[in-house]
Design goal:
This protein folds into 3 domains: 35 residues, no CATH class; 156 residues, Jelly Rolls (Sandwich); 112 residues, Jelly Rolls. The chain is 16% helix and 34% strand. The chain has a 6-stranded antiparallel β-sheet with strand order 1-20-17-22-15-14. The chain has a 6-stranded antiparallel β-sheet with strand order 2-3-10-5-8-13. A hairpin with a 2-residue loop joins strand 6 and strand 7. Keywords: Dioxygenase, Oxidoreductase.
Length: 320
């Protein structure tokens, strides 16, 4: 189509039709608005129960090994139509289990990853860039993007943890790379728990116990882990709720995945009520109202995209 043929049109609907084959879309003829008055998302609040996940993993342990499944894990897939992988728009998480005597092959990838340990004997470990780090319940272990990592279990019972990754963010931005370790397993060069990539529960628990309660009544006591320098796309935070705690309702533009280390309580997310207990996970999509109550002292671990939104100046929070 020539430029002259566009200049001679005297009907707006004809102009719209002529622009379409040229891959133009007129701003006055949008298929749908590109701006809206407040955040909206297809992702929905949801609650995954640890007892169901553990039953599924234990059964999978009888049916498939780490030779066939590089990671024996169950992804927490948000049940909005058309989604097949992500837990929230920018984040994905999964329950993972490793049996005694198993090793999960080493690899590396662009996305940042971390694991929150639910239950592990002393001989369950991860190897990150050649360093073996043994896992303990309550530990947070980091695998920054492009770090080699694999796992193993030299104990007598299974180990369980929750993986969190920013894979959906990498899918959106598209700089995805993946590489398997030559020879399957990276052998550790040293063995320590004193490492920048591990936040041991024995260190974070005292900090959590000493934290000043949130004056705005959202979190109870809260400790944000110092991980942003190596994992800028995510914020990792532990919070302690005393028995009888009831938060003020609030919302944020950050997407939040909340896992339960210990305790019991309820969460109301945009009108959806969830009764949570140790090991459970629930989601709070962006700009969804959240209110949490604890029936007994409870410790929660939250992974969100708060830091990324803060860096981009997209973070907004408000009390309701």
């Amino acid at each position: 189509m020539s430029t002259h043929s566009l200049t001679t049109i005297d009907d707006l609907s004809v102009l719209n039709d002529r622009l379409a084959p040229l891959s133009f879309r007129a701003g006055w003829n949008k298929a749908e608005p590109s701006l809206w008055v407040e955040p909206r998302t297809d992702f929905v609040p949801f609650h995954w129960r640890w007892d169901a996940a553990k039953a599924g993993l234990d059964t999978a342990g009888r049916l498939i090994d780490t030779e066939l499944a590089e990671r024996r894990n169950l992804f927490l897939v948000n049940p909005h139509p058309g989604n097949y992988y992500a837990t929230l728009r920018t984040l994905v998480c999964a329950y993972q289990m490793i049996l005694p005597g198993e090793r999960a092959r080493s690899h590396r990838h662009t996305p940042h990853a971390l694991r929150f340990v639910l239950d592990a004997p002393e001989a369950v470990y991860t190897v990150v860039d050649g360093v073996r780090i043994d896992m303990r319940p309550g530990d947070v272990l980091l695998t920054p993007g492009w770090s080699w990592h694999g796992h193993g279990n030299e104990g007598s019972r299974p180990g369980y943890w929750i993986d969190f990754l920013d894979v959906p963010t990498v899918h959106l931005l598209e700089p995805m790379f993946f590489e398997p370790w030559p020879g399957d397993y990276q052998r550790p060069e040293r063995h320590t728990r004193d490492h920048a990539f591990v936040f041991p529960w024995e260190s974070t628990e005292p900090a959590l116990a000493a934290a000043i309660p949130d004056p705005e009544g959202r979190y109870g006591q809260r400790v944000v882990l110092d991980s942003a320098a190596v994992m800028p796309s995510m914020t990792l935070a532990l919070q302690r709720l005393p028995a009888g705690f009831a938060s003020r309702p609030w919302r944020t533009t950050a997407n939040q995945i909340i896992s339960v280390k210990s305790g019991r309580g309820t969460a109301v997310v945009a009108g959806q009520h969830y009764a949570w207990q140790a090991g459970d996970v629930f989601t709070v999509p962006a700009w969804h109202a959240l209110q949490i109550s604890a029936t007994e002292q409870s410790d929660l671990f939250t992974v969100s995209d708060e830091n990324m939104l803060r860096l981009l100046r997209y973070l907004k929070e408000e009390a309701l």
